[in-house]
Amino acid sequence: VTAAETAGRSGRRLAPSTCRCFGDAAGDRSTHFGFETVPEAEKAKKVYKVFENVAHHYDTMNDAMSLGIHRLWKDALLHAMHPQPGAQLLDVAGGTGDIAFRFLEYVRSQRERQRRRAEDGEEAGPRESGAVVCDINKEMLKVGKRRADSAGVTAGLSWVAGDAEELPFDDDQFDIYTVAFGIRNVTHIDQALKEALRVLKPGGRFMCLEFSKVTNPVLARLYDAYSFNVIPALGEVIAADWKSYQYLVESIRKFPDQEEFKFMIEDAGFFCVKYYNLTGGVVALHSGFKL
Amino acid sequence: MSLSSLGRSCWRFSRLRCTFTPKGMSLFSWLCVNWNTPSPVHRSVCVKRVHGSTSVFTDRCYEGLYPGHIHTTALQKTLLAVGSGVAALHDPYRHDMVAVLGETTGHLALMNLRDKMRNDPEGFTILAERPRIRLSTLDLKEMASLPDGSLGREYLRFLEDNHVTPDSRADVKFVDDEELAYVMQRYREVHDLLHTLLGMPTNMLGEVAVKWFEAAQTGLPMCALGAVLGPLRLNASRLQSLFTSLGPWALQNGRRARCVLSIFYERRWAQSIEDLRQELNIQTPPVTLTATKRRNI
């Protein structure tokens, strides 16, 4: 954690997508922003604006939109991760800190369990676990820090502003890289996956929770009706922001399905890539290893 | 999908009650097709009008019929109406929710108001010229120099005493007709002028009195709801004042007054308030209320 913290503080950079566009005429290339088509250089700015607007209602809206089920999805991620004391986590697009808090709680209870089983005098483990929350959006990080402060969680937790496509960390730093409901907002997903490979230690694990394609056709219709009707209306009523939630719902439809994303992860260089469908495919948990 | 067939499906959404299930199609699948229409179909047509926008929500290049317009299906409007109603009841100071409630429930009343305006020569001019009441369009210095008792001077005094500004009115978002959206916007911007005309401050009693007047005048369901539920937040003495004098006066005058949206206020700043009241057929209020701090019940 200390090394990552130092790297984070000294290597912190501003969003580099605008710098890259001067080099390779990316202004001509377009990408999707929900169902809109926008120049690539603009997408990052628009996404930043969306999350700046929603940051203060983010957690309330998550509970309202998913009826609290997002907590179960995140718990499932931690259960699949099964982190051991001493593990170093990088949570990218981790904004308000949900994964990082759960991670620290999990390793704490694992450590307690180890201590209870340990013979008298034996040390529980060589290192403390640490979680680094990295997010491009400062408003989201502010909300996360406030939550951490009010919950009294500070040990082993650090907050870094950074771009998933160009992480401000050295190579081979982390045991686990997670990205929960964030990777679909990245302009160049393949770049983010390459960065994930770079910062993971050999043997490290990549885990991604993301909305995906619902397999059952009846459930798919209900899910579409719910997504396009209820969610933007909830966004307007709770957060006074219809358009941001319209974007969020559309961005889910533009994201590749389970198999395609699995191929993308394999292309980036990960091995043993698997995915698990949660809630009938509403959410998919992808996992891969750096060998 | 062509624009004409898109238009037909949009019309179908708003007239959902009147449509029927085509032969050979189960009700469930028909419902799925008509209620579940992904907004992408509409947005993908509108999006072609957007070029080079530099921010997510820009006025210059916009989707929809007017800046800020968000197209919604009948189901979405219903959800918004219910949600905003609950939110507004929970916190009456969420003006944006009151605004959304008004927009999603006011279609018939807005059409009625628009027709009234069209049938009035001054109202017709307003619909043609589309004036807006904002700080940027008002000449505050000139209004301050007008004599006491004139509309402009008293309006300015009202804004100062009650610490309000005409720019705090939310923009219309969910009305799917550009002219009706203007009528709604005009109603919002005229609201403060109504306070001035009726001599009502912005405390709870004053707001309820104005709501009773507006409910009788406009027939907007949001006004009626506010008129019915607003008194719940008044104490006993104010309730008495409302039911015995202010309320009947507001209702009576709301019914018989000329349509307040058909007055080109921007050209009448120098006119005396008494004169304007007579012209509109509004009696002087029976009780004089003074401006107090906001949130005073």
UniProtKB/TrEMBL annotation, chain A:
<keyword id="KW-0808">Transferase</keyword>
<dbReference type="Pfam" id="PF01209">
    <property type="entry name" value="Ubie_methyltran"/>
</dbReference>
<dbReference type="GO" id="GO:0031314">
    <property type="term" value="C:extrinsic component of mitochondrial inner membrane"/>
</dbReference>
<keyword id="KW-0472">Membrane</keyword>
<dbReference type="InterPro" id="IPR004033">
    <property type="entry name" value="UbiE/COQ5_MeTrFase"/>
</dbReference>
<keyword id="KW-0489">Methyltransferase</keyword>
<keyword id="KW-0949">S-adenosyl-L-methionine</keyword>
<keyword id="KW-0831">Ubiquinone biosynthesis</keyword>
<protein>
    <recommendedName>
        <fullName>2-methoxy-6-polyprenyl-1,4-benzoquinol methylase, mitochondrial</fullName>
        <ecNumber>2.1.1.201</ecNumber>
    </recommendedName>
</protein>
<dbReference type="InterPro" id="IPR029063">
    <property type="entry name" value="SAM-dependent_MTases_sf"/>
</dbReference>
<keyword id="KW-0999">Mitochondrion inner membrane</keyword>
<feature type="binding site">
    <location>
        <position position="135"/>
    </location>
    <ligand>
        <name>S-adenosyl-L-methionine</name>
    </ligand>
</feature>
<comment type="similarity">
    <text>Belongs to the class I-like SAM-binding methyltransferase superfamily. MenG/UbiE family.</text>
</comment>
<keyword id="KW-0496">Mitochondrion</keyword>
<comment type="pathway">
    <text>Cofactor biosynthesis; ubiquinone biosynthesis.</text>
</comment>
<feature type="binding site">
    <location>
        <position position="96"/>
    </location>
    <ligand>
        <name>S-adenosyl-L-methionine</name>
    </ligand>
</feature>
<dbReference type="GO" id="GO:0008425">
    <property type="term" value="F:2-methoxy-6-polyprenyl-1,4-benzoquinol methyltransferase activity"/>
</dbReference>
<feature type="binding site">
    <location>
        <begin position="163"/>
        <end position="164"/>
    </location>
    <ligand>
        <name>S-adenosyl-L-methionine</name>
    </ligand>
</feature>
<comment type="function">
    <text>Methyltransferase required for the conversion of 2-polyprenyl-6-methoxy-1,4-benzoquinol (DDMQH2) to 2-polyprenyl-3-methyl-6-methoxy-1,4-benzoquinol (DMQH2).</text>
</comment>
<comment type="function">
    <text>Methyltransferase required for the conversion of 2-decaprenyl-6-methoxy-1,4-benzoquinol (DDMQH2) to 2-decaprenyl-3-methyl-6-methoxy-1,4-benzoquinol (DMQH2).</text>
</comment>
<dbReference type="GO" id="GO:0032259">
    <property type="term" value="P:methylation"/>
</dbReference>
<comment type="subunit">
    <text>Component of a multi-subunit COQ enzyme complex, composed of at least COQ3, COQ4, COQ5, COQ6, COQ7 and COQ9. Interacts with PYURF; the interaction is direct, stabilizes COQ5 protein and associates PYURF with COQ enzyme complex.</text>
</comment>
<dbReference type="InterPro" id="IPR023576">
    <property type="entry name" value="UbiE/COQ5_MeTrFase_CS"/>
</dbReference>
